[in-house]
Specification:
mainly alpha; 33 helices; elongated
């Protein structure tokens, strides 16, 4: 079997039609063309009001409204983007900030189509102009710290932060936006914003997210990077500040610098790679579960203390008002001033939550960067990207790869510098640790708090990303660098334990896809090195039976491949006849009945592996009537490829399927000789 190529990770993508499917709901309800959009019409009308305060309130209302999925079609019909765009350059700084906030939410909630429509409606022109004005404003913004504090809400940096988030969202979804980013020289502007990381980490994080997006597969932009720009990135990545928000910033910048590897001089590459992996290693060293427990407790104690402080100060304020009345002074001013002072003292109510989310996001991002470092230069998101082939020594497989199949089988590899750094920073060990289930105490704490509950999903995502990382490393590193045969067997036991400790594992699709991918890669490596495997036939069939009913194509491909790998090992052993028959019948049913040609092709390829060689395999193939079943299915498979292939599958997948079709013909001929020999 060939090795499966790992997918590259990007920021979580939107569905092509938007997350909300609002248009479909409207059509189903018969309201698709209705023009009465309630609050949308009123809010959009107020954007033209002569009062800046009214315009600001309207923008704030729209920022909330766009988060309601059914409202999006109505806003699109009323051309909300063209109405909000000019307000990015409104004379009022408050209006600019809230307009950018509304566009930020619209671009985040609307999906690919909305973002692409925003570019079509020329949102990039006022957005770039705003970024340029913010950049110029920062040069002349020499306010004192107290003045900055008083004007924080409408500050240039706050506006820049909102604008950067709009830019990031749009560039994530639109290649046209990235082209405009390149053409308008936005790089210099955003690097200036990033350079303010010592005093404004929120802005720096927004910039880092955007830079990680626009630097990926963008050779035109890479030419624009100067030494000062690279120095800004280096300074941010090597910042000595160790707060969780700075950890996230450094992780994102490390990802950006990895995207720039092609422009880094060869003499500096080893040093840069070491610096990147040092950042990622430090992030993964932190215990997310313990952090959740500690920060949640800190939040609880802070809120209790704040409530006590507020009670004391309010009591003092009442006493002061009584005293003011007696002295016939104006109590109202004293009361307002006193309340403002108390508000300034009270910290943000979600400080600990934000910091914890920053750490979890940093760990997820670090794992995604490691996966991307392991990928080839020509990544693909196809679910089945490479031809899984039987042992080349098998007679029926000789010369079976066409030219396109050979290209798909190009080996994955790491550069010497990355390979060495992975080992030096114990990256495999740290990834292994992250594959464990989230801390049960932390999960319990989060489940009891509405505001912390979303962190459970983030912790589960980290585990899944770690499993995908593990798949990559097992596929790429030498066995010795993974700890030797004994370590691989321990790892296989660990993955089996993870899997079967969850009675309902089949219901957790992300987890099942990730762990089946890791198992597939591990079992393939162990088989290629003749390391004995430790999954029992019962465990194997439990996994495959559950996985094959998954709606996720990737899961079904993985379990079929696992069966092929395990079966090919068992075929060379004595006393495995019944197990081979069970595997053969299972794979035959998948090949002939699975609705996906990708899965069917993988099942056929697994059959080629299992029944290619070995006395037990030959006997099993005859007893399950493998030859007659494949002969009957051969024309059906051929017809399905012809009818369904062009519309549903990519060129790479079709190339693989053509190889499987050709190998099926050869395998049938091989099985004819086997059956003839055993029955005469």
């Amino acid at each position: 079997m060939g090795k499966s190529r790992t997918k590259r990770f990007k920021r979580p993508q939107f569905s092509p039609t938007g997350d909300c499917q609002a248009e479909a709901v409207a059509a189903a309800n018969g309201t698709e063309g209705v023009e009465d959009d309630g609050p949308a019409a009123e809010l959009l009308e107020k954007l033209q009001h002569p009062s800046a305060e009214v315009r600001e309130c309207a923008c704030a209302g729209l920022a909330r409204l766009v988060q309601q999925r059914p409202a999006l079609p109505g806003l699109a019909r009323r051309d909300a983007v063209r109405r909000l765009g000019p307000l990015l350059l409104d004379p009022s700084l408050a209006v600019r900030e809230t307009a950018a906030g509304a566009l930020r939410n619209l671009s985040a909630c609307g999906g690919f189509e909305v973002c692409d429509d925003m570019v079509t409606k020329d949102i990039m022109t006022p957005l770039v102009a705003l970024l340029k004005e913010c950049s110029a404003g920062l040069d002349s913004n020499e306010m004192s710290p107290q003045e900055k504090k008083d004007q924080n809400r409408n500050s240039i940096e706050n506006i820049a932060n909102e604008a950067m988030n709009v830019l990031w969202n749009i560039c994530e979804c639109s290649s046209r936006a990235v082209s405009i980013f390149n053409k308008e020289g936005c790089l210099e502007i955003v690097l200036k914003f990033l350079s303010r990381f010592p005093t404004n980490v929120d802005l720096a994080i927004s910039v880092a997210y955007c830079l990680q997006t626009v630097t990926e597969d963008n050779p035109e932009l890479l030419k624009s990077f100067s030494d000062p720009g690279l120095h800004v990135l280096e300074s941010a990545m090597l910042s000595p500040v160790s707060s969780m928000e700075y950890i996230l910033l450094k992780t994102l910048v490390a990802g950006t610098i990895w995207n720039l590897k092609d422009i880094i001089p060869s003499k500096s590459q080893a040093e840069i790679i070491n610096a990147i992996l040092k950042v990622l290693s430090d992030v993964l060293d932190l215990d997310a579960g313990e952090t959740v427990i500690r920060m949640q407790e800190a939040e609880k104690q802070r809120l209790e203390a704040a409530a006590e402080t507020e009670d004391v100060l309010e009591s003092a304020s009442r006493d002061a008002l009584i005293e003011d009345d007696e002295m016939e002074e104006i109590p109202h001013k004293r009361k307002v001033r006193r309340k403002t002072f108390v508000s300034d003292l009270l910290p943000s109510t979600d400080r600990e939550l934000r910091e914890t989310i920053a750490l979890l996001t940093a760990q997820q991002t670090a794992l995604e960067i490691i996966v991307n470092m392991c990928c080839t230069e020509d990544p693909s998101d196809d679910e089945w990207e490479e031809l899984s082939s039987s042992d080349e020594s098998d007679a029926f497989m000789e010369n079976s790869f066409s030219e396109c199949g050979g290209q798909l089988l190009s080996p994955l590899c790491l550069s010497h510098e990355v390979h060495t750094a992975f080992t030096n920073y114990l990256i495999p060990k740290k990834i292994f640790e992250k594959t464990a289930f989230p801390n049960s105490t932390a999960v319990d704490i989060c489940s009891r708090s509405p505001t912390w509950k979303s962190l459970i999903r983030k912790m589960n995502t980290i585990q899944c990303r770690a499993l995908v990382c593990l798949q990559s490393l097992v596929s790429l590193l030498d066995v010795d660098h993974l700890g030797g045969p004994a370590a691989l067997q321990t790892l296989a036991q660990h993955l089996s334990q993870l899997l079967f400790s969850q009675p309902d594992f089949a219901e957790h699709v992300d987890f099942l896809e990730a762990i089946s991918s890791a198992l597939r890669a591990l079992l393939q490596t162990m088989a290629s090195k003749n390391i004995s495997q430790c999954m029992t036939p019962n465990q194997l069939m439990t996994l495959c039976t559950a996985g094959i009913h998954s709606g996720n194509t990737g899961v079904r491909v993985n379990v079929v491949s696992i069966l092929g790998i395990t079966g090919s090992v068992l075929a060379k052993e004595d006393g495995t006849l019944e197990t081979l028959k069970t595997i053969g019948c299972f794979l035959l049913e998948v090949a002939t009945k699975d609705p996906s040609l990708v899965v069917a092709g993988e099942a056929l390829d697994a059959l080629f592996d299992v029944f290619a060689d070995g006395k037990e395999a030959e006997r099993a193939s005859v007893q399950i009537k493998l030859l007659s079943a494949l002969k009957e299915f051969q024309p059906v498979f051929k017809m399905k490829i012809r009818k369904e292939g062009r519309g549903k599958y990519s060129p790479d997948q079709l190339c693989v399927l053509d190889n499987v079709k050709m190998n099926l013909r050869r395998f049938v001929a091989y099985q004819e000789t086997v059956e003839k020999r055993l029955t005469t």
